[in-house]
Amino acid sequence: MIGSLRGRISAKAPPQLTVEVGGVGYELEAPMSTFFQLPPVGAEVHLLTHLVVREDAHVLFGFGSEEERRLFRSLIKVSGVGPKIALALLSGISVADFHQHVQSQDIGALTRVPGIGRKTAERLIVEMRDRLTAPELAAGAPGGALAGSPETEAYAALVALGYRPAEATRLLKGAGPGTQSTEELIRRALQGAVRE
Questions:
Q1: Cβ pair 155, 190 in contact under 8 A
Q2: What residues are paired with 27 via a beta bridge?
Q3: 109, 101 in Cβ contact below 8 A?
Q4: pLDDT in tens, 155-166
Q5: Options 1.10.150.20, 2.30.30.60, 1.10.10.10, 1.10.1740.10; which CATH number does 66-138 get?
Q6: Residues 6+ apart with CB under 8 A from 166
Q7: What is the DSSP annotation of 43-108?
Q8: Which of 32, 74, 78, 121 would staple 110 via disulfide (CB 3.0–4.6 Å)?
Q9: Using one digit for the tens of pLDDT, what is the confidence trace for 83-138?
């Protein structure tokens, strides 16, 4: 998996750009929120990436922040929401605003994004609500300060291992108090899961 790219921008045509890294040009698609922050063609850039593998293509998506990439990855797990709709959402709504719209169940704000109908907006609110209560996404909400913490990283690892967000949160609470490393939190949470 390609996790990030650091190289020179050789072309920009929203939403696509090409980043040349060591003589290889990587074509990426990026949300407009990332595009607005890009330096001019010829300048160096560092982007976080997510690779989507389809039957007919491998598409690389680029993001200017971890919060954007994390939300993109959560969005494409929602049934009926593919990478194109996730990109449209990130282009039309900031990460913090998206969290606020989901928590306040503001269907109207979501349907203002091109390509998002009422049914998709309702599905997003229902499926994303549980994920937004978890530490991983709370960091993207206004005033959140958990980004990069051991708890956030451990939570993300448990979700990646297949635990539901609520389960991951419960296992981490049961891991015990005190400052611990990410690895220690994961180990204790998994030990707690085995004992159940």
A1: no
A2: 18
A3: yes
A4: 777 777 777 777
A5: 1.10.150.20
A6: 130, 133, 134
A7: SEEEEEEEEEE-SS-EEEEEESSHHHHHHHHHHTTSTT--HHHHHHHHHHS-HHHHHHHHHTT-HH
A8: 121
A9: 999 999 999 888 888 988 888 889 998 998 888 889 999 999 888 877 765 444 44
